[in-house]
Every structure is written in structure tokens, then in C-alpha cells.
């Protein structure tokens, strides 16, 4: 009986720990940052998703003359982005949205089909506000620390590509291939944790993303 009670307590704790509300403080900080930086009269391009977006520190500098909003929030999954979509994307009424989610989802053992379903809901919510908005799905990246999950990442990326072909306003930015050296992930494009990228890694991303800006 004690074990059963403990099990239910643990399930409740895990459910709470994965609640989208765990990002409330970070989302609020992003809002406050752009309260002073964002100009509603200018066209806006939003980059959002997990930490690979959040820690792209010189993202705005790569695209001078454009109003870039970086609303990435570390550790997030697609379901978290959906929960905070109003504050992180819709409030900016963007002309284009770059989305990077799926990396943490796969690591959390979510199935690619489940991730795509949530991504579809995100896309539909954004298009409800502006049917002409351009959406760019950035592929889940390979990494040293998660290389053992590569088959699941590839499966997810194939689904992203298939999804992008259903709508001319949805694009597919493939950062997977440039991060490989043959059949192995490049070793010199990551910081010490083997998951997040260094400047060399982000240069590879920039070379891909710049082709999807216009």
C-alpha cells in the first residue's frame, strides 16, 4: 500500500515537473525584454523553440536591417511552445516564424508522430492569426550527447519535411546534413556538454537559415 501511495506521489511530481508552467518566469523575462525593444510598426521575424535558439546570442547581428525576436526558451518541447504561443509568437504578429522543437521531445521519449501532431497545432494557431505567415521548421540537429537517438531524429526530420510539402507557406530548413562529417556528427562544433553549439556550429546554422529569410 505504501508503495502504491509513493508511486502516485511520484507520478504527480513528474507531471508537475513537466508542466508548461515551469517556464513562466523565463517567458515573462522574454516579454519584458521585448517590451522595450520591439517596434510594432516594423515587420517582425520570430525565432522560437528550445535552447539551441535561446543561446544563439548573435542571431540578430546576422540579419541587420530586420527586426528579429528571439523567444527561445531552454529545455522546451513542442507542447511547451504551444502552451506559451500567445506570449512568445502571436503577440509579435510576425511575418515569418522559425521553429526549433523536437530535440528535447525525442530525448524525453516522445514519438515523432506525437511531436508532428503538436507542431501541426502550433502551425494552425499561428495561421489563424495571419493566413499568409511564413513558417520555417528547423530540423532537429544531430549532437554528440544524443547521437544514440539519431534514428529517431532522422524519422522526425522526415516527418517535418513531409509536413512542409503540404503548404507553400511552410518551409524546411535542414541543419542536420551540414552538421555531419560523412556518417558521423562533427566533433568541433559543440561546447563541452556535447549538446549545444559553439560559434562554429552556429555558423553552419546561419549558412542554412539565411537561405530561408526571403
Overview of this protein structure:
There is one protein chain. With 214 residues, this protein is of the alpha/beta class. The protein has helices spanning 2-17, 24-37, 51-54, 59-62, 78-83, 85-88, 103-107, 112-129, 150-164, 199-209, and strands spanning 44-49, 67-70, 96-100, 134-138, 170-173, 180-181, 184-185. The protein has one domain (22-212): 3-Layer(aba) Sandwich (Rossmann fold). Strands 2-1-3-4-5 form a five-stranded parallel sheet. A two-stranded antiparallel ribbon has the order 6-7. Helix 8 packs parallel to helix 9. The N and C termini lie far apart (62 Å).
Short summary:
The chain is built from ten helices and seven strands. The protein is of the alpha/beta class and 214 residues long.
Number of β-strand runs = 7
At CATH level 3, the topology is Rossmann fold
Task: Give the end-to-end Cα distance, rounded to a whole number of Å.
Answer: 62 Å
Please state how the strands of the largest beta sheet are arranged side by side: 2-1-3-4-5
**Percentage of β-strand residues:** 5-15%
Low-confidence stretches: 1-17
Protein name: GDSL-type esterase/lipase family protein
Organism: Meishania litoralis
